[in-house]
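Re: the multi-chain job from yesterday

Posting the exact lines I submitted so nobody has to dig through the queue logs.
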Amino acid sequence: MPDQDLHSGGEGASVRTIARSDVAALAAGAAIFGTGGGGAVQTEQLAVEMAIDEYGPVSVVPVAELTDEDAVIVMSAIGAPSVGIEMLTASGQTDTIVREVERITGRRMTAVMAAEIGGSNGVAPVGWAARLGLKVLDADGMGRAFPQATMIAMNVAGLPSEFAVMSDAIGNVSVLRPINLAWLERHARALTVASGAISLGAHYVLTSRTAPGAVIEGTVSRAVQVGRRLLAAAEPVAELADELGAQVVVSGKIIDVERNTEGGFTRGSVTVEGVGPDRGRLTRVEIQNENLVIIEDGAVVASVPDLITVVDSETGEAVSTELLRFGQRVSVLAWACDPLWRTERGLELAGPRAFGYDLDYVPFAAGVAGGLR
Amino acid sequence: MTPQHDLSVGIDVGGTNTDAVVISASGDVVAWTKSPTTRDVTGGIRSSLAAVLKELGPDQDAVSRVMLGTTHATNAIVRRRDLGRVAVIRLGAPAATVYPPLAGWPADLRDAVLAGFVLAGGGHLVDGYPIAELDRDAIRRFLDGLEGRFDAVAVCGIFSPSFPEQELEVEALVQDHVGVDVPISLSSEIGALGLLERENATVLNAALYEVARDITTALTTVVAEHGLDAATFFAQNDGTFMAVEYAARYPVLTIGSGPANSIRGAAALSGADDAIVIDVGGTTSDLGVLVGRFPRESTMPREVGGVRTNFRMPDILSLGVGGGTVVDVAAGVPANDSVGYRISEEALLFGGSTPTLTDAAATRSTVLAGHELPPLDRSVRAGLAAALAVAHDRIESAVERMSLGRTGLPLVVVGGGGFLVPDRVLGAGEVVRPERGTVANAVGAAIALAGGRADQLCDVGDRSAAIEEASRAAIEKAIQAGADPARVEVVDVLETPVSYATRPTLKVAVKAAGPVARIGHAPRRQDREMKERT
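And the result, C-alpha cells for all chains:
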C-alpha cells in the first residue's frame, strides 16, 4: 500500500501542531499539491487563521497514533473552483455535517481528515477542526487534488463509502446512501449543481483499524514542509522544483485561457508561450478543475495521475486554474505521483482514460520525460 | 505635425515630492520641475504647474492634456488618514457568513473605515437562482441603527458581476432611505469575481471618496485658473488614463498608478522595450520589469495597505533601500529607518548628524555637486562603506529575482537616489541612467495610455469569436480615446460566466490600450465624451 516516504525530500520531521504562524506555509504547500484544483487557498487560509485566533492551535495526529476511541471524519468541499472564490462557506455549515454524521454513526468524531491535501481542501479542514474542537489526521485521500469522489485512496484500497452527508451555503442538508463511489460522485455532483456548484460533504468515517493502508500518510506535514521551503526561498521556482523532485517543463507567458463551468466542473485549457530560454515554444495544459495533461507539439509531456502545477515565475506560488489569466508569467512544473496511483487500480481510477483522454499513461520522470531543458 | 496643441503635462504628486513635466509630440521633456509635496494639495499642484508653464512661456497654449498621477489614495490607506467611514451591505446571507466584511484587514485600518456591516439576505447562485430573497427591511434597519454615523456605503452581492441588477436596486433603496447625497460604491462596478477581494476593493473605494473629491477638485481648479484649454485626466493602475469624473467615482483605481508611471516613464526616457527598472526614492527602491514597453503585472492578488484585492497591478518588488535610509555605522548595515524628506537637513552631507546611504555613496563619489562630506572618523567611514556594500548586494539580488533568470536585460535607474545603484550589477546588462530620470513618474503620467474597454455576451461555444469581436470594439474605443491606431493592443481579457440556466453564457471583457497619437491631435470633444472606464 502507499509508500510512507512520499516524495524525494519527504524525510522532514512531521508536524504535530498547526498554529497561526504555520497556516501560510500549509496553504502555500497545499496550493502546490493542488495541481491547479482544490480551490484557491487564500480565502481558506484567512478562515483558518480566524478560527485559530478564536479557538487556538490544532493538533495533528499521525495515523499510527490513532486509538480505538478515534473516529476520523473525511471532509471536503466539492464543486467548481471558479465558484468557490465567490460563494463562500456559511457559518455552521460544517457543524451541521458533523452533527448529522454523529447521529448516523452513533459515534463522536475526534478528528478530521482532508479528502484531498491539494488546494483549499487541504487547508480548510484545519479551520473546521479548530471550530469543532477536533484533531487533524496527518494524511489525506489523494496526496494531491482530484476532481471526482472515485479518485481516492480508500477506493484504491477497496474501502466502501457507506453514506455521505452534504450541506450547502444556503442551509440545505442531504444524506446519501450510494451503492458505490461512482454513484456518490453522480448524485453528489447533481446536488452540488442544484446548490450553485459548490457544497461541503463528508463521505467516510475512518478508524484506527480502517485508516492504515487506505490513506496517504504524512501529507499534512509534507504540505507544511514544502510551503516553508517555498516561502523562505531565494529562488522560489528552482528550490520548489528541488524540494518536490519536479521538472520545470516550461517558463513563459499565458497567451490564452479557455475555461467554462459545466456540471459542477471547471473545464478548459491554458496556453503558455515560452519566454527566455523557452522562447518559441507553445505548451498547452488541459484542465478539468485540475491541470491534467501537458501537451507540446502534439505530444504528451506529462499526464495524470502525475502532478502538474502552474506557478508564478517570480514567487513560485501556485496559480489555481480559476486564477489563470491572460498575460501572467508562469512556470509549469511536473513531478511523479504517489506510487499508489501507479498501480493498476490506481490508474483505472485516476489515469488519463478516467478523464476521457484517449492516451496511455507514461510515468513522468523529472529530467527524462519532455527532456526539454 | 501640427505645432499647436500637442504638449502634454504630467504631474506626479508623491509622498515626498511633487514633480511636473511637459512632454512634446516627439516625446521630449521640454520643461520640468521638482518640489517638496505640500500639505495643501491644491497649492502644490498650482505651484508645480505654474513652474513648468512659466518655462514654456507663450507655448503654454499648446498644452492639450494635463495628466495627474497621485499616490493620495494609496497614502490615505497606508497612513489611515482622511478615510471615510463606510457602511457595508453584503447581499447573500446565509452564504459566506464565515467571513465578515473586512475579515483579514489590519485592525487599525478596519477601525478607521468600518462604520458597521449587515449580512443581508440576497445575492445569487452561479446560475442566477436567488440565494435568498432580498432582505430590504434588514438593510433599512441597519442604516437606521447607524444613526447617520457613516460617510459612504459599499454594496457587495454574491455573484453581482454576473447579475448586477440587485446591487442597483439596493443603491436606489439606500438613496430613498438616507438621501441621494451619500456616495455609494457597487461591487459589480469595481471588480471581478472573488467575493472578498471585490468587497475589499469596494469598501476601499467608498472610503476614498473624500480624498478623491479633494484631488480631483484641486486638479480641475488649477487647470481652470491657468486658463488652459486642456483636458484633464488621472493615471490609473494599469498605465492608462481616466476622465476626472471617473476618477472621482472610482478613486481606488488610482492605486498602483505610481509604480506603473515610474516604469513607463523610465521606458520612455531610456527608449528600452524590455528592461528591469529600479526607482530609488528616499525610503524605498521599487523594482519593476518592462516587457514590450508594458509593466509586467503580478500574477497573484496583491495587498494594498494590508488588504487583499484582485486588481491587476504592476509586479513590484520594494526594498527598504533609499537615499534617506539611515546607516547603523557600528554594525555597518542599512537600518530599517529613513530620514525621508528631512534628508536635506539630517544627512551628514548636508551638515546634519544622521549617517545615511546618501552619505555612504558620497564616500565613493560626488553624489551632489557642491556638497562635500565633513571629515569622518575612520570607523564611521568603514561603517558607511560596509553599509553601501550591503545595499549593493540587496539591489543585486532584487535585480536577479526580478529578471526570472533572464540575464543581460538593461537596468534602467530612475529616482532621486539613483546614485546608490552601482555602474555594474550582476545579472543585468548595461546600467542606463536616463536624463531626467528623477522625474520619471511625472513623465509616465504625461504619456499615460489611452484605453478602451468592450464587453460582449456570448454562448460558451462562441468564445473565440466573441473575444475577437470585443477586441475589435475595445481597440476602436481606445482609438476614439486618442490611442495611436498603429500601436494600440489588447492588454486584458476577462471572462465572467453569466448564465447556466438555459445556455451556458459568458461575458467577455476586453481592454485595449495604446500611446496617444501625436499626429495632429485628437479632437477634444472626444476626450470629454470619454467617460468610459479606460
